[in-house]
Sequence to fold (109 residues):
Amino acid sequence: ALDCSLEFHGVTSSASSLVLSAGGPVQVEARASFRREQINPKASLTAVRTVLRPSESALDALATARDTFPLNRATYCLTLTYKASGMEPGSYKPDLPGLYGLVYDATYE
Fold:
């Protein structure tokens, strides 16, 4: 006969990755299901997100025939200008979540 015992232990957290913002501290809950565990949390920053606001904006009606809807309704163009200074060398990726689903695939109402 063979007698054996198995003991499972470990810690689970409420988040697998975190996004820190200027809003304040971030809380992560760590939970051990079976017994008390000692943890040694560590963090490293992999990306920096900077919010840029437009320095200039212009809203213009497009005047060509292809940009006019029936009943002479105009199509408008919003031009936003952003200025970024003091940027360090590196790779940059613009992210515009407010425009997801709106650019190029918007439905006509």
User: Anything to note?
Assistant: The mean pLDDT is 78.
